């Protein structure tokens, strides 16, 4: 056998039989393919852990959000029923909580409160203190026999999560509660204002999704700027009084959803049947539409199947109009003691005057105008609005330079937009609502705190 053949055999034998395990393992670990396999297994394990923890976190957040929704709804409903007594409030709280999700609320987690200058204190008429607020706590925890079970966290010894929702709702009082019987803008979406507006006499500005203002706005003591999350407040520079006016709370916006029922009632009944304001006593008179040059009888309810167009340069007083189409009011019109309700849009042009005069709009103690539209309300410039209730199933838009926006109460299912140089003024005693049924007592509408 030649030396060359012997050499080849020695190398072959060392490869198959004489392998050094230590050297082989070291070589494998240094090999790029082996290293990638180990890294891949580690990443898969890590992703599984992170994914499981994310699921547990998401499940806990969802349960917490549900508990908060139930607490909010129950507290609001209970605060409204406080006006009918403590038992009525407690019954309503448990009913609403049970309707949303049974098992989240115990009676021990309901507290009746009174809000004073010194803050909250427990209250009961039996002790001579009339409650004006309720506190509700909803829970998913072991004590309530309904904790949130974990998916992967139990591997580290955490089998369940405890979550809770807390809400306080009330209808007046000093400090943080809204006292907005005097008027304000209340949007289910955002309240968006421009620059150089003045807020006085208890005017309230609220957006469920936030409030936005620009520069040079002035807020007098007693005015309110509110939203459920102050992180949704946007402002530019130089807005004196804004910090003092800020409140973190929700607001019960209900009128936009009632517009279709109010319009249906107007269409189907007579003024006597519907308990309309005393300035409407005759009708209904049915029209296919109302054109610019038509005369309208005082003290009358008009039911219109199409559009309504009120010509400029006229004075309309003591009338109610409900329309299936749009309502347009030309410039230079005076509206006093009117109801305009439409299933479409309501648009008012420039130099329109609605409601009372500057001297008597508040002392007359009643609204002088009711404007309701399913699809939205739009005002042009240089108008005078005093003692007016505005409700929109969409947005409400005000243009610039209104000479007066006093004692106006506006609710929108969408946003409320208004431009610059507005005089936004309340009527602190409150104005009586003779049409929609909104309560305007000194305690103000129900406000929600979390």
Tell me what you see in this structure.
The chain has 450 residues and is α/β, with parallel strands linked by helices. It contains 7 helices and 34 strands. It has a 17-stranded parallel beta sheet that branches. Strand 1 and strand 2 form a beta hairpin. Helix 3 packs antiparallel against helix 4.
Number of structural units classed as domains: 2
Distance between the termini: 96 Å
General form: elongated
Largest sheet: 17 strands, parallel
Estimated radius of gyration: 33 Å
How would you describe the oligomerization state of the chains in this entry?
single chain
The amount of helix comes to 10-25%
Q: How does the helix and strand content classify structurally?
A: alpha/beta
**Count of alpha and pi helical runs:** 7
> On the 0-100 scale, what is the average pLDDT?
83
Beta-strand content bin: 25-35%
Find the count of extended strands (DSSP E, 2+ residues).
Answer: 34
Low-confidence stretches: 15-19
Blueprint (SSEs and pairs):
Elements: H1 3-16, H2 21-30, H3 32-81, H4 86-100, E1 110-116, E2 119-122, E3 133-140, E4 148-149, E5 160-161, E6 163-170, E7 184-187, E8 191-193, E9 198-200, E10 204-207, E11 211-212, E12 218-219, E13 224-227, E14 233-234, H5 242-245, E15 246-248, E16 250-251, H6 259-268, H7 271-274, E17 282-287, E18 300-304, E19 308-310, E20 315-323, E21 327-329, E22 334-342, E23 345-348, E24 353-355, E25 369-373, E26 376-379, E27 384-386, E28 388-392, E29 396-398, E30 404-406, E31 409-412, E32 416-418, E33 423-425, E34 447-449
Parallel strand pairs: 7-10, 7-31, 8-11, 8-32, 9-12, 9-33, 10-13, 11-14, 13-15, 17-18, 18-20, 19-21, 20-22, 21-23, 22-24, 22-25, 23-26, 24-27, 25-28, 26-29, 27-30, 28-31, 29-32, 30-33
Antiparallel strand pairs: 1-2, 1-3, 3-6, 4-5, 6-34, 16-34
Helix pairs in contact: 3-4
């Amino acid at each position: 056998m030649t030396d060359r053949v012997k050499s080849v055999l020695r190398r072959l034998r060392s490869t198959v039989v004489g392998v050094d395990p230590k050297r082989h393992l070291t070589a494998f670990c240094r090999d790029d393919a082996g290293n990638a396999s180990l890294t891949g297994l580690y990443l898969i394990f890590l992703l599984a852990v992170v994914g499981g923890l994310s699921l547990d976190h998401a499940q806990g957040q969802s349960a917490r959000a549900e508990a908060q929704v139930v607490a909010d709804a129950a507290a609001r409903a209970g605060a409204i029923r406080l006006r009918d007594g403590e038992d009525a409030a407690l019954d309503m709280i448990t009913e609403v909580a049970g309707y949303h999700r049974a098992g989240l609320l115990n009676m021990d987690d309901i507290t009746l409160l009174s809000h004073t200058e010194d803050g909250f204190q427990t209250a009961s008429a039996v002790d001579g203190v009339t409650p004006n607020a309720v506190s509700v706590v909803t829970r998913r925890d072991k004590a309530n026999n309904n904790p949130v079970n974990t998916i992967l966290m139990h591997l580290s010894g955490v089998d369940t999560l405890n979550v809770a929702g807390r809400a306080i709702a009330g209808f007046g009082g000093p400090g943080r509660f809204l006292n907005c019987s005097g008027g304000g803008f209340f949007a289910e979406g955002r309240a968006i204002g421009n620059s150089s507006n003045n807020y006085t006499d208890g005017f309230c500005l609220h957006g469920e999704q936030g409030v936005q203002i620009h520069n040079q706005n002035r807020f007098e003591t007693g005015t309110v700027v509110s939203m459920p999350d102050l992180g949704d407040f946007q402002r530019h520079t130089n807005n004196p009084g804004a910090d003092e006016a800020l409140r973190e709370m929700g607001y019960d916006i209900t009128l936009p959803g009632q517009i279709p029922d109010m319009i249906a009632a107007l269409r189907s009944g007579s003024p006597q049947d519907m308990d309309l304001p005393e300035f409407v006593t005759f009708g209904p008179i049915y029209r296919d539409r109302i054109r610019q040059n038509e005369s309208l009888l005082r003290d009358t309810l008009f039911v219109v199947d199409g559009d309504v167009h009120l010509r400029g340069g006229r004075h309309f007083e003591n009338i109610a109009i409900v329309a299936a189409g749009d309502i347009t009011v030309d410039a230079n019109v005076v509206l006093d003691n009117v109801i305009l309700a439409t299933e479409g849009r309501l648009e008012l042009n420039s130099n329109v005057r609605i409601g009372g005069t500057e001297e008597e709009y508040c002392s007359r103690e009643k609204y002088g105008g009711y404007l309701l539209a399913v699809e939205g309300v739009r005002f042009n410039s240089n108008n005078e609005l005093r003692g007016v209730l505005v409700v929109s199933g969409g947005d409400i838009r005000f243009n610039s330079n209104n000479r007066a926006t006093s004692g106006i109460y506006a609710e929108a299912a969408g946003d409320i937009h208004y431009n610059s140089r507005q005089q936004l003024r309340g009527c602190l005693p409150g104005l009586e609502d003779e049409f929609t049924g909104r309560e305007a007592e000194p305690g103000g509408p129900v406000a929600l705190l979390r």
